[in-house]
Amino acid sequence: MKIVLAEKVSPATLAVFAAEPGWKIVTHDQVKDLHAEVADADGLVVRSAVQVDDALMAAAPKLRVVGRAGVGVDNVDAEAATRRGIVVMNTPGANAVAVAELTLALMIGLARNLPRANATMHAGKWEKKSLQGVELRGKTLGVLGLGRIGLEVARRARSFGMEIIGHDPFVSAAVARENAVRLVSTEDLFREADYLTLHVGLTPQTHGIINETTLATMKKGVRIINCARGELIVEAALADALKSGQVGGAALDVFVTEPPKESPFFGLDNVILTPHIAGSTAEAQEAVGIQIAKQMREYLKLGVVQNAVNLPSLTHEEYLELSPYMTLGEKLGAFLGQFSTGSIESIEISYNGRIAEGKTDLIRNAAIAGVLGHSEQVNRINAASVAEERGIRLHEQKKENAAGGSGNVLKIALHSASGKVSASGTVLHGNSARLLNLDGIDIEAPLEGMLLSLRNLDVPGVIGRVGTILGDHQINIGNFALGRSDRDHHGTALAVIQVDGAVTEQVLQALRGVEAITEVRLVTL
Predict the structure, then answer these.
(1) Residues near 511 by Cβ (< 8 Å), separated by ≥ 6?
(2) Is 158 part of the annotated catalytic residue set?
(3) Contact 39/59 with Cβ under 8 angstroms?
(4) Where would I find the ACT domain in this sequence (predicted)?
(5) Which of 469, 479, 455, 480 is nearest to 503 (CA)?
(6) Is 0.90 surpassed by the pTM of this model?
(7) Residue 458: its pLDDT value, please?
(8) Which of 229, 297, 380, 390 is flagged as catalytic?
(9) What is the pLDDT of residue 404?
(10) Helix H or strand E encompassing 32
(11) How many angstroms separate the CA atoms of 19 and 30, rounded?
């Protein structure tokens, strides 16, 4: 077995591989020509500098696994790896403690004015009276995102005597209770928090979630910590709130542009700025290296796949047959995931037709990844384990003969405290994912792009009003699908509209203002 370490890793990482009898290890300082070196390699370890593209993998016909010592895999062409039967692994969670510890350190720094205290002392000043701080004890900490890092923060904050509230639609109530976190809506989270810390991934729903509108709903003097992604915050809005006193302080480790050349936070004495160092500890870097080495060893020796970001090895024929239905599962799951309003307690997946005879675990994981995709990093390999970790129950049903006239039908239902939402879909023309039914109402629509879902009373004039509103806002309609309930005596109808262009909150409010419309949702796929 040959392993190529294309970038510098910790000695402990090297030791994991070196302990295997007969394994040849090539370290980064021994690599003269990477393409030549991987020609007979079984495993490749990279960090963030080396680009693992299709050309490099083409030069490595024996390559079975690429290990990314870290989380982001932007430098690895996972799709090309999947086609070539190469597993791509990363190490999510290995730096969770490091990020959580910096988060708490920044909270304490804000509470006790530590940066200013340090600066004035170095300047030879004794400003004891002006540096009176506050305690964390008794304060409410709002945690937006309860993945590995968010829960690590919550556990540590409890020891300071803080009340912990959190929001994450993809964490079960049971897991929240175990960690003494009270689940609330985003609105209540923003309204109640004395300290607000962000631990969510970047999605269309979370981009700019801290903005002028949400900041105005927060307690005056709230303190905000961001060790997640800079794009979660509209920087100009936060800077204005810091200047006005609406926000008492902020501690930022990440920024929209890194490194920031110009920033609205420069010069503000109520802001702590650090250069994206949350995961940069000796222990975290070593943990990342050891974890990737162990994962690769287990895969190469036993075939055990952990934290893969792509699909396991498939024959070319299997990949061609299953790929469209994995895409369907992911899109259908993502569609429903944006419908669920409460904490998801269980996911039910039903397969009808020929797909029920195949490797449905791959379709299942794609569907779960779609449902949880607006949470932290979830993929088609780790989706089931992430769901289990979050206390979400999984149920699967298989039927060889599909109902409804389509050869293969996939159905997903999400159960939460607020109720059940379900949808079914199929693949048409070989690769077109289509919605067939939503909450028991037959409706055919493409699962692609920007979708508006409307529920309304089945009365005349609704379609015209909707078309007029969208037209007035220069929004083009790509597809307009309609359905009506034959089991609802109250006359409920449903529309799924595929649109071109951005749908603003103003447009959504205009649609909600139509008397006959009872629900409006925007879904981005």
Answers:
(1) 452, 454, 466, 469, 517, 520
(2) no
(3) yes
(4) 451-525
(5) 469
(6) no
(7) 87
(8) 229
(9) 47
(10) none
(11) 19
Q: Tell whether the torsion through CA atoms of 424, 428, 430 and 431 is positive or negative.
A: negative
Query: 276, 354, 473, 484: which is the annotated catalytic residue?
Result: 276
- Structural domains present in the chain: 2-93+285-311 (3.40.50.720), 96-273 (3.40.50.720), 314-439 (3.30.1330.90), 449-525 (3.30.70.260)
Is 229 tagged catalytic? yes
Question: How far apart are the two ends of the chain, measured CA to CA in Å?
Answer: 41
Please give the Cα distance from 444 to 434 (Å, whole number).
7
Q: Which of 211, 264, 219 is nearest to 246 (CA)?
A: 219
Q: Which long-range contacts (CB under 8 A, 24 or more apart) does 265-273 make?
A: 265/235, 265/238, 265/239, 268/239, 268/242, 268/243, 269/116, 270/242, 271/242, 272/106, 272/109, 272/110, 272/115
Give the angle 198-67-149 at the CA atoms, nearest 5°.
Answer: 20
| Residue position matching structure tokens 């396991």 | 312
Reported in sequence order, the residue ranges of 334-475 that DSSP labels E, i.e. its strands, are 344-353, 393-399, 408-416, 419-428, 432-438, 441-446, 450-457
What is the full DSSP assignment across 320-344? HHHHHHHHHHHHHHHHHHTT--S-E
More confident residue, 360 or 38: 38
CA distances from 438 to 256, 318, 329, 398, 525 (A): 37, 29, 15, 20, 16
Residue 311 pLDDT grade (very low, low, confident, very high; cuts 50, 70, 90): low
Q: Which residue has the tokens 């008794």?
A: 138
CA distance 207 to 287: 30
Burial 471-482 (b: 16+ CB within 10 A, else e): eeeebeeeebbb
* Residues across the chain: 525
Alpha-carbon separation of residue 171 from 174, 292, 349, 372 (angstroms): 8, 26, 19, 10
On the 0-12 / 13-18 / 19+ scale of CB atoms within 10 A, 361 is middle
Q: What is the rounded distance in angstroms from the CA atom of residue 285 to the CA atom of residue 140?
A: 32
> How far apart (Å, rounded) are the C-alpha atoms in residues 224 and 252?
8
CA 444, 445, 447, 451 torsion-angle sign: negative
- Tokens read off for 520: 């409006």
Is-contact 452 503, C-beta < 8 A?
yes
**Would you tell me the crossing angle of helices 114-122 and 96-111 to the nearest 10 degrees?**
70
Nearest alpha-carbon partner for 197 in 237, 232, 235: 232
Inter-residue contact 226 to 276 (CB < 8 Å): no
The phi, psi pair for 210, rounded to 5°, reads -95, 100
Classify residue 98 as left (phi > 0), alpha (psi -120 to 50) or beta. alpha
- The catalytic position among 79, 127, 135, 258 is 258
Extended strands (E) in 127-270: 140-144, 163-167, 182-183, 195-198, 222-226, 247-252
Residue 376 pLDDT level (bands cut at 50, 70, 90): low
pLDDT digits (tens, 9 = 90+) for 78-127: 888 877 878 999 887 788 999 999 999 999 999 999 999 999 999 999 99
Identify the helix (H) or strand (E) that includes residue 476. strand 476-484
Give the least confident one: 93-97, 184-188, 287-291: 93-97
Q: How far is CA 514 from the centre of its chain?
A: 33
